[in-house]
Amino acid sequence: MRKNQSAFIVKIVLFILFIGSTIGVSAQKENKKDKEQSKDSLNKGYKDYAKLLKDATVTKGLFSVIKTDTDYYFEIPDSLFTREFLIVNKISQVPLAINEHGLNKGMNYENKLITFHKDSLSKTIWVKTSNPMVSSPKNDAITLSVKDNFAESIIEKFDIESYNPKTNAPLIKVNKVFNGKEKSFNDVLNNVGLGGSVKSDLSYIQKIKSFPENVVVKSQLTTTVNEGGPAMYVTLGVTSNIVLLPKTPMQARELDKRVGYFTEKHWYFNDKQQAMKKQEFITRWRLEPKPEDVDRYLSGKLVEPKKPIVYYIDPATPKQWRSYIIQGVKDWQVAFEKAGFKNAIIAKEPDANDKDFDIDDVRYSVITYAASPQANAMGPSVVDPRSGEIIEADIIWWHNVMTSLQSWMRIQTGPIDSKSRGNVFNDAHMGEAIRFVSSHEVGHTFGLKHNMGASHSFPVDSLRSKTFTDKMGGTAPSIMDYARYNYVAQPEDNVTAITPKIGVYDTYAIQWGYQWFKSPLEEKKQLKALVNSHANNPLYFYGEQQPYLNTIDPRSQSEDLGDNSMTASTYGLKNLQRVADNLEEWTYQEGDDYYNTGKLYMGIIGQWNMYNDHVTNNVGGIYLNNTLHKDGKQSYQPVPYQLQKDAVAYLNKNVFTIPEWLFFNPVLKHTYAIKDSPLGPFEQAPYTLSRSLQYNTLYKLLSNERLLRMVETNLYNPEHQARYTVQDLFTDLRSHIFKSTKKGASLTLVERMTQKNYVDVLLIDTQKILEKTTVKKLNTANFFTTTSFCAVALAEEKQARNINYSSMTRTSEIASYKRQELQNVLQLLLKKKRKGDANTQAHYNDLIYRIKNTLKF
After folding, report:
1. Is 741 within 8 Å of 747 (Cβ atoms)?
2. pLDDT confidence band for 630 (50 / 70 / 90)
3. How many other CB atoms are found less than 10 A from the CB of residue 541?
4. Dihedral sign (CA 325, 327, 329, 331)
5. Residue 680's pLDDT is what?
6. Chain segment 784-830, per-residue pLDDT in tens
7. Total Cβ atoms within 10 A of residue 307
8. Is 725 helix (H, G, I), strand (E, B) or coil?
9. In terms of DSSP bridges, do strands 381-384 and 365-370 run parallel, antiparallel, or are they unpaired?
10. How far is CA 721 from the centre of its chain?
């Protein structure tokens, strides 16, 4: 019986297996049929995929790019929906009119974070954008609110044109966002300041290339510009990159304000807070040791990074300069070794056989050479806004930057370096200058901001020491300062290290920004200890960039040298006088006119004027320190009394007494000072030029904000050594400017000019103070704006310390001080109005009338 039961059970099992297999085969056939029907249904109402591809060109990559005639389609895999991309837009070509205004190839003008979202129901792909500066922990309750209060915005809509029958990936036609019809992906005209709209019938997509992590789109976009005359057609070549960002952003590093880095702002929320936390993430490359080298790295051994930073030299760069630009990049190797990495940075020429090389492709960081009259260079970067990671760098090198280098070297070092005296330098001498600029701009692409306070750490007289300058290697402990060339050293000093070099601050800043740590906690602890260990050493001082027209801290100035502006400028004037004595000899070229002579003459006057600004900023100046609780430092330290008094004495001697060697130079027999302009060279008559520049210095010196700073400072620093007062300033100025008047002597034309300038500044300011509560600055002629590198870097460097000294000037003490000073001058003039010759008396009567008319008595 058991045997029969067993046989029966076996039969039952076999039957079940048979039935199951039959059902399985049937089910597989049914599923396959369903899938085919599903794919068929996908294509209902869409373009036939096979027909679309029949005569098309297909490029595989991040997106498959399908080109049919003049139409372009993106085929987007499902895995890339909701992933974050960065659109990076650059200039590729410009016509002359745009070139002349400083817009050139290689310039990045717009970046935008986007995500793609598939909506099968509406047959649509939505494109959204957001600012990823807000974050919160995934599981915190407040994260629900963060998502709703910082949501994405829709910027574009694409109809789904077809589906890939094998992958179900949708196709979208993208012409409209790259040919100028829509501004969602590329708003070039508004971003470069032209405005208006693209003429679609004169614009087109040139080509689209797709690579594993980015898509590159090149377009020609045309507009018209009308400036009161006939319409001018302007076509811009633009390159748009769509870059896939990493799923996991780089570990962000928070800024310490005692080290100068560019930053991305960030807001952080969590449930435990009582207030939102504001953060700043520094911008830096993702330098990490290879997994197999982590232990060696942490033990202090140098290792090569997983992915080095690579810069390519634009093939358009003249061959004689390429090696110097490359060396300027390589000079930073020593700084990255301080951070634990060897061979971290590479600079090279592109492989001529690399057909995909494109300097506008974000896969390549390029030092782009721009044929342009612009005399500049700059080093911006493309940054992942989520973390501060630098994705790619774009150094723009304008051809005419060499004119600035030649002028600086000639004027600042000509007296001590015979190679710097001619109209043209030899290639080796110019090459070393190019190497310096290359290092400076590359420093910006590592994330470093200007350190305008670095040069203040060198004692002025040390810059005259061959031993000191040879040891320290340059003019400041940071190449990120605008410490140009050594204008302090005198011919007898035999100083030869006169060019800025990468210094101790730079290696320290790179170590702070790029040293790798295993955990965020360890990183924070070690970096804080690093800064604290250098906090009291002036060589590591970081001085924030300040607005040129509102410099509060005189330690952090552009193009100054040493720790005392008055001493440094006095030495500088001695060298300037040597240049002035050799104007014609150094610029002589047989058969030439005096254009180069006039240009050099104007350069000398500009350098003199720059020294005036350096000195002026000590008066009413305040040392601004980045302080922490219990570090024993003051946040606001007034410039010491004696330094302010010395500054006014310098100005009295060298500005409010016009230097004859400068403005009454024998070269005036052959040429005036010449300044180039878009309308051609302007020849500046000496009396008019000296009067205008002297007036500018007086106006800056007696600005309401400067005087208000002096009042504020003396209010909470009553000790005598801190008290250089507004009354002291007026007394020192009046005593010098009216010295001959007090003696009853006749005045020279130049003395009368200075008195008129002084009185007029007081009259104008007094009238303006009483006119309005908010004082507008007088629009004085400014013949000299500081020639500088880093146009983009400067635009990004906002003043970190915004201190208000100018509100409600009308009700401050300043109006009283200025009116009283006018009365002091008036009393003196009334006493002396019959002294001196006829010109002097006419001058006094004129000033008396002006003052009385303003004071209304």
Report:
1. yes
2. confident
3. 23
4. negative
5. 87
6. 444 455 654 544 555 556 777 776 667 788 989 999 999 999 999 99
7. 12
8. coil
9. unpaired
10. 38
